[in-house]
Design goal:
Blueprint lengths: L9 H4 L19 E5 L5 E6 L5 E8 L5 E7 L2 E2 L1 E6 L5 E8 L2 E2 L1 E7 L2 E9 L2 E2 L1 E6 L5 E6 L14 E7 L5 E8 L2 E9 H4 L10 H5 L37 H6 E5 L7 E5 L8 E5 L2 E4 H5 L9 E3 L4 E4 L19 E2 L6 E8 L3 E8 L10 E2 L6 H6 L15 H14 L7
Length: 416
């Protein structure tokens, strides 16, 4: 979870254990408690009536090892229920009415909220939220009948949006099964809405005036943002449409280091853990990167084992591409104040971001350590206890600077 916006803890909103105990009249005291194994291998531990139907409070252990505590009434689930994964890391709190989901379903991972979905008579309806691990938050008031294929596809409808970490900058508009079709940026602080959008009722959203595109209008007419169709040859449909978060928090000018060309600077004070900027670009494979020279890979950054984002030199100027600014951050071993981290954005999908690892003052340059494979060099200088099996894979300038840095800051491990 992002340090700038801690998700709620399970201990803050978990139902009291007493709330899932049945009333005595739903569980007559003369019934005997026993365990029954179902056809799918689950075990129901409860009291059963003469017709072999569970009554009152029950514990169900699934064939996968998760444990569900629930009430039975008239043979179906009724009221609050809690499910714990077999390793104890996942907790799901639900509510049932007449055997179907009805109310808010909240999922926690390691005590932090990861999702909140509202059900009405078994169908997803109302406010739904996805709390992202990078601190972002997706939300939607679902009014249509939907059949989600995954959690992201729940974010659907004309009253949906995305909060950046910190929950001040928000994109609101229309989403289709998780795809941002059209949205507009707003600052919660500047607009002074006086309402938490993640708790706002449908009546509040529907009362808003509309932008010319039909999106709900929280403020003045703003540029339209949508999911970019990024490929290995198309960097964005709107390559010069600046990101609203970056516009507020960072800017680009000549670097303070002699060989840095342009650099990335903080526009306002950034705290340790704050999001600095995004790092998007062409989406290419590792094989393509490996087949090129370092001169062609100066702005590449691995997103995962399959995808690398790349801002080619031909598109590296602000006039050509400024949809994200992560490629403008320069490298420094001695002045590093930020680092790369995974990030999800509804405009760009899964990318990387740059996050502060210490407090950064206004107008201070933001530096990262570039992510090249240099494990063997770190071991050579005694930084890591075990040698890396991967060969050093970095441009010559990086290797020279790394050797200089390690020789100045560590004791060299002599080798035969």
């Amino acid at each position: 979870a992002d340090p700038t916006s801690k998700p709620s803890s399970a201990s803050d909103s978990s139902p009291n254990e007493e709330s899932i105990k049945p009333d005595l009249d739903t569980c007559p005291p003369h019934l005997k408690h026993r365990q029954v194994v179902t056809d799918d291998g689950s075990t129901i531990s409860a009291k059963f009536d003469a017709e072999d139907t569970p009554v009152g409070r029950a514990t169900i252990t699934t064939n996968e090892g998760s444990v569900l505590t629930v009430n039975f009434q008239d043979g179906v689930f009724e009221g609050p229920a809690v499910e714990l994964s077999n390793d104890g890391t996942t907790r799901i709190e639900r509510s049932f009415k007449d055997g179907v989901l009805d109310g808010v379903e909240t999922t926690y991972e390691d005590g932090d909220i990861v999702s909140k979905f509202t059900y009405v008579n078994g169908a997803i309806q109302g406010m739904c939220q996805l709390h992202l691990s990078d601190g972002g938050l997706l939300f939607a008031i679902v009014t249509d009948s939907i059949e989600p294929t995954d959690e992201l596809s729940v974010i659907h409808g004309q009253y949906a949006g995305y909060f950046y970490p910190g929950k001040d900058i928000v994109l609101t508009g229309r989403f289709d099964a998780g795809v941002m079709k059209c949205a507009h940026a707003h600052s919660i602080q500047d607009s002074q809405l006086g309402i938490d959008l993640t708790q706002a009722p449908l009546s509040w959203f529907s009362s808003l005036s509309k932008h010319s595109c039909g999106c709900p209008q929280l403020g003045p007419e703003q540029p339209q943002y949508c999911q970019e169709d990024v490929t290995d040859t198309i960097i964005a449909q709107h390559p010069t449409l600046a990101d609203p978060y970056e516009q507020r928090f960072v800017y680009v000018k000549a670097s303070t280091i002699s060989d840095g060309d342009e650099g990335l600077f903080a526009k306002v004070a950034l705290k340790e853990g704050d999001l600095c900027c995004l790092y998007g670009g062409l989406r290419i494979s590792h094989d393509v990167v490996d087949a090129r020279s370092w001169d062609e890979n100066s702005n590449t950054l691995a997103v995962d084992d399959q995808v690398v984002v790349d801002v080619p030199l031909a598109l590296s100027k602000m006039e050509q591409y400024c949809a994200t600014l992560g490629h403008k951050a320069n490298h420094s071993f001695t002045h590093q104040n930020a680092q790369y981290e995974p990030y999800y954005h509804p405009r760009f999908g899964n990318i990387k971001c740059i996050r502060a690892i210490k407090d950064i003052k206004p107008d201070e340059e933001i530096f990262v350590v570039y992510e090249y494979e240099a494990g063997q060099l770190y071991h050579e200088y005694g930084v890591t206890p075990e040698p890396s099996t991967a060969p050093v894979d970095a441009p010559g300038w990086f290797i020279r600077k790394l050797r200089m840095h390690l020789s100045e800051t560590t004791t060299t491990t002599c080798k035969e």
